[in-house]
Amino acid sequence: MPARKKGYGGARQDLSAFSKDGKVFPIPSNTVCNDSLKRISQLIDCLKEKKVTFHLARHTFATLFLSEGVPLESLSKMLGHKNIATTQIYAKILNEKVGKDMQKVL
Which residue ranges of the chain lie beneath pLDDT 50? Predict the structure, then answer.
């Protein structure tokens, strides 16, 4: 469906002339995202030797948000998961980390 916005007087204007696919903002490919993340990571000393990808960034986002107390249901919607079980994988990872951290203390 082409992007549309309300114009003056409530009339709808077709915005498809602004892009080839009819979207107002471009959606970069996975390759473009990974190339951008690689360039950015090269500017940060602790990331220079790491392979930073969109998948890693998405996983980090999810893990950090859960660890900060964002509800699983909200995070699931943010990530665009159709099934909350997909998001629960991140909760399992956090629980495993807590267990490992507890073992270090004991």
Answer: 1-2
What residue type is 34 in one-letter code?
A: N
φ and ψ of 87, to 5 deg: -75, -30
Q: Using the Cα atoms of residue 99, residue 103, residue 105 and residue 106 in order, give the sign of their dihedral.
A: positive
Instruction: State pTM to two decimals.
Output: 0.63
Nearest-angstrom CA–CA distance, 90 and 48: 26
The alpha-helical segments, DSSP class H, found in 25-71 are 30-41, 54-67
Q: What is the pLDDT of residues 56-68, one digit of tens each?
A: 999 999 999 998 8
SS in 3 state form for 65-86? HHHCCCCHHHHHHHHCCCCHHH
